[in-house]
Amino acid sequence: MTKLDTEALKLVGVRRKETAMEKTTRAAREILDDENEMRRAKNERLRRSRLQYEHGDR
Question: Annotated region Disordered: where (predicted)?
């Protein structure tokens, strides 16, 4: 039997278990990504509203 290295495992699709720190990091990134997207959408909406107000296009 041959010894498998991590590259060979990646090619086969076998993944190692996710550590607690990796789970926490992934969850935190997902939360931050969601918050950033909500902030971007809000800023875009407010910017459009301000431009309409400034140009009198109400």
Answer: 39-58
Q: Mind listing the pLDDT tens digit of every residue in the chain (58 residues)? A: 566 676 666 666 667 899 999 999 999 999 999 999 999 999 999 999 999 999 986 5
Cα–Cα–Cα angle for 55, 36, 25, nearest 5°?
175
Q: In sequence order, which residues have a C-beta less than 8 Å from that of residue 18 and are 6 or more positions away?
A: 26
Domain ranges of the chain: 20-58
Which two tokens mark 29? 């990134």
| Helix or strand holding residue 19 (H, E) | none
The gap between the terminal CA atoms of the chain, to the nearest Å, is 75
pTM of the model: 0.59
